[in-house]
Automatic annotation (TrEMBL), chains A, B, C, D:
SUPFAM superfamilies: Homeodomain-like, Tetracyclin repressor-like, C-terminal domain. It comes from Actinocorallia herbida. PANTHER family: HTH-TYPE TRANSCRIPTIONAL REGULATOR RUTR, TRANSCRIPTIONAL REGULATORY PROTEIN. This is TetR family transcriptional regulator. PROSITE patterns: HTH_TETR_2. One of its GO terms (molecular function) is transcription cis-regulatory region binding. Gene3D superfamilies: Tetracycline Repressor, domain 2.
Length: 204, 204, 204, 204
DNA sequence: AATGAATGAGCTTTCATTCAT
DNA sequence: GATGAATGAAAGCTCATTCAT
């Protein structure tokens, strides 16, 4: 569907692997694990089906690689630095309608469902815990580890997941086409509500 | 798994149909569309596989019926009446760990994914719009239909969806086992943040 | 290859199962486990491939059923009764060229190779031990259980297995086309050599 | 598994070919034709898979070479010389439990099954006829070529084949672990029974 | 109304083989 | 001479669906 770009890309293992990985990521993100067939992934990548076994061993291996190669940073180059405004900004961009054009959908969707394999579950949990930690780090308050604070950060993660899921599954308007600008205000309000007033502007 | 209650329930169309529907709802909710097999649904219901065709025509027909039969009320018997505290209360109960024991998971999960069929999409959209409307109705402010207010309500719906999805997919703690009491505070904060301060207690 | 007899034999579970079993037995006997494909077995039986799953669950299930349904009696209706001449007679008939026309080969061939599955191994071992016991029973001597006597009986079983294998694999002449009459003399000599002179003609 | 001896054995065609051949012989003997995969053979030999094509052209080519390179001598360095005792001795050693440690199983097992290819069949037949001839030569009687005598020699070959097959396939005890000493007596009896009393010790 | 036999299509996986380098 | 990338065909298995009682 995508990369079958005429020239058969012969004899380039790295490129072939990469093409398969990207095709898989797109399909897994949009269609889920069961909805994705290896034949179609191979066709998208423009290579032979059996190469999936060669490079990823099995469908599960391909899925794990796809999950592992998914972007995890919430915000800028080095994650989200420490203040509330930047967190709101990062989230509103991440959750806007036209983010992730190369996936077709928000990549977090790949983290959901399938279940069963313990290793996959661990990967998914780790990814989401990563998001939670980034939110806490970016919330501009000390690392006081009280459980309610953790719960509140997880609720913010849940909000993000829910936005991605709803957009992908049913496309409610106006959420479906919301721009970063439209989301920034409401998200900032939610962040403040969940994480409390920003701790003193430490830096003057 | 459930209703194979010995006596073969011969010749009771309505009961048979109902048994199939409930079995299907449970499986679709927990395992998704692809993960649910008609044989198992029929076995759960204790009836013959071919009756699914008779009553629902096809797997998709069964799925549609399951979606259509899913509870839509956010709160009490007639939805959520008009004040902020009750909305927070209803949501915290709905999203707590042990709600919906008869489904195994939060029923909203059935509304997600599969896609493709236009009719199914319409059903799902309608269900989620229903939630949005109930939230707006329950938010204690006038029905001023500005789009941002709608977006903010949808974000609250997204939060709920996200909680259900995360709990089902990966089970982050402490969110996974959160009780209604643990959720009430944070949710109240989010509600207030998204829907603004409650309009003056109209009734004096 | 065999039973695709025009009329599709619709709606007769027992007959369908039987047809599959016979087709499987023929193929397993001639071609071994790996050499037998379920598609061909189904084609031979003139039924759909998926029915193998229905009736035997898997290839291994089919194989087990085929082994279990294989004849085990060395001789007459009730095994080999007690004297040397009848044992020689039974063996020479069993190992002659044109025995087992309905299998294509000697059914003992199905008992060989594949390995791996413990349950299958047990079935095979039991079948061959059955033969050994029948030989000892038919040897006209007391049941003195000394190990060498057991070893000698097993060598006789080995001779039978070897004849079947050689005939099937390479077809050495004159062994390949040997008639019961041609085999009786040599086999009688071997039996006597292995099991010792017949114990006193009891009914002297 | 065997020859991956560190240094990549570069540029030594004969050694590479030999390593492949030995690895193939081991696998074919233990696992049969279908159970042997070329990738594993190549891995055992520590060489690249494609070299099998270079040296043996195909899986069948490799199999033919493996068959052709299998030991055919029944007894000592120059086959079995002429007397009955030595034949029994040679056979009992050949058929004992721990003969052929370098194959894992008795090499005659490679001669069985697969079928189909005429050339392979000819090789196998020739090998078994070789055994038959050695037996007749070693039986201490004149080369009177009557067919029954041939049949009797073939039955002895069949006994050997059967022992190897049973040991490999199911492992009946006590045959499975029989030592040369345990086999010598019974085999001597069978030899005498099949080939008749030794003709006068011609050589004084 | 209800049952269970039968089917066709499609999936993942496995291999021998071929092709560039 | 040797390597590793790439391919095509076929296998076992699963499932929604249809057909005959």
């Amino acid at each position: 569907m995508a990369d079958a770009s005429g020239a058969p890309r012969r004899r380039d293992a790295a490129a072939t692997r990469q093409a398969l990985l990207e095709a898989a990521r797109r399909r897994f993100t949009r269609l889920g694990y069961d909805g994705t067939t290896l034949r179609e992934v191979a066709a998208d990548a423009g290579v032979n089906l059996a190469l999936i076994k060669r490079y990823f061993d099995s469908k599960e291996g391909l899925f794990k690689a796809a999950i592992a190669s998914t972007p995890r940073a919430l915000g800028g180059p080095a994650g989200v630095p420490g203040d509330r405004a930047r967190l709101a900004d990062a989230l509103s961009r991440q959750l806007s309608a036209d983010a992730w054009p190369e996936f077709g959908e928000h990549p977090v969707l790949m983290l959901l469902r399938v279940s069963g394999d313990e290793q996959v579950d661990a990967l998914r949990r780790a990814a989401l815990q990563d998001f939670t930690r980034q939110i806490l780090d970016g919330s501009g308050t000390g690392p006081e580890k009280d459980p309610e604070r953790l719960l509140r950060a997880e609720l913010l993660v849940a909000l993000g997941v829910g936005v991605a899921v709803i957009r992908s599954a049913v496309g409610l308007q106006p959420l479906r086409d919301a721009t970063p600008d439209a989301l920034r205000g409401p998200l900032r309000d939610v962040i403040d509500a969940l994480l409390g007033p920003e701790s003193e502007p430490v830096e003057g």
